[in-house]
Amino acid sequence: MVATVAGVRIPEEHWIGGAWVPSARRFTDLSPLDEQPIAELALGGPAEVDAAVTAARRAFRDFSRTTREERAELLHAIADEVLVRLDHLAAVETVDSGGLLRTHLRATLPRVAHHFRFFADRLLELHHPDFHLRAHRNHVSWDPAGVCGLITPWHSPLLQASWRIAPALAAGNTVVLKPAEWAPLTAALLCRITAEAGLPDGVLNLVQGTGTEAGAALAAHPGLARLAYTGSAPAGRRVAAAAGATLTPVSLELGGKSPIIIFADSDLDRAAAVAVEQFDHAGQFCHAGGRLLVERRVAEEFSTRFLMRANALRQGDPRDVRTDIGPQIHRTHLKRIDGFVTRALAAGARPLLGGSRHDRLGGLYYRPTLLADPPPGGEILTEEILGPVLTLQTFDTEAQALSLANNSRHGLAATVFTGNTDRARRVTANLVAGTVWVNCGAVRDLRAPYGGARQSGIGRGGGQWSFDFYCDLKNTVFAPDGLLD
Q: Which residues does the Swiss-Prot or TrEMBL record annotate as the active site (predicted)?
């Protein structure tokens, strides 16, 4: 069966062993634009997961023997095909996830192609100098691990999937992908793209379905060599527990509750601009800086500059290139966001901006929101919201700023604005976060590590760190009269 979305024909079945495979059961994919059905997809479970893992294990025998040059060529071919189909991918992802069309065209989906190119090129550079001990030579190699199970989220779904798929394939592994059921369609298009780029049958497999059924079956499957999950911390704990039963190594990119610390000596215009950018993607991205921590003596001035920018944002149909903020992904998620805000207001938080669903647009639109003076220790400060909701707290000293910033179970990212280099060094050294930005935001070289501390995840991706996870590292020791030149 095939769905037509934004004029693009999309297979509704699983992709297993190089063929579209149906299931007797289906589930409905709704567009966040109007909550109308756009596809009826195959609903997979343990049987489909097992078939996909079996196909991937069969394909691994040959694919793991390919050379680095052969795999790099395949990944570049995939990147080329992504760029050729950029308009179609962007149109479908906008209708399926609610993300801005202009962002998909200019940034998100070109980044998908860049992921494949980057890991292709990094593969060819992967090297470690030999170690020498008593004339013995220790030689490090990165061997393909096996079948990788990948469970990816609904926010920026193709970007998130490619971040996992590209290094797994570059390493010589085969993949079983379970995309999020709220935005699954571009995953099917990617399977078609990889096949047309020449990826052998069974190297990339797709099982559609829910996290509680298909995702759980994949996490627990004993045939996996690696398991990677991107999503919430509670679900990450369940995934890790399932993988633990088979001792499958896991990579977890989980939620965040990232602070933005703004000192009085900051460039307040720049700080306000980055703070307002946290409303991008309707606040639905994991490293969003949802907690604004502002030095008290400039809090009023900063708020004025922030509100001037935020009030100029245009909310509406994400297909309109003039739109700045689109809808939330799903009715369930909208209710969750509204619940956080309603309870915070009842507990005494002051709304400086928004604070409710968008009464004019209706549907899944939530107004960009800034809540001042949230109750200390309240859930609005501790739980990931993944929506267009920010809080504002004030501090008087550097120590207070650090205490507020680190008062979280999470540690994905943090941002610091200051005009003092010594302070920047002190504060960043004491922040608990996987990524810290200073006087900027959301800029990252793919050669650098990415991941979270505390309950924001396990492991790091990017550069060599991705290959360290998706490979079995081997040390071969040669005697003094060994065979290496």
A: 253
